[in-house]
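Teaching assistant's notes for section 4

Start the section by putting this record on the projector. Ask students to predict, before seeing the second block, whether DUF3311 domain-containing protein will look compact or extended. Collect guesses on the board.
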Amino acid sequence: MKKHNSKKELLLLPLLLVAILVPVGGHWLMQPSLSDVAWVEYSLAALPLILIIVVIWAFKIAVKNNDTTE
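Reveal the predicted structure now:
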């Protein structure tokens, strides 16, 4: 029988917050008033990569937590 440890699951909440804020920030950066700013294009291009990294990191934490509870 597995022992459930909710404290280890709480470690994933900051990653969840980042995963929520990345698309919201991307939509905010796409507003027309920022279309002439050069760094916005590079920031928008980096957002999918950031989101992929956060998801992979969360999977690694979840797998590690699952291995320790077995």
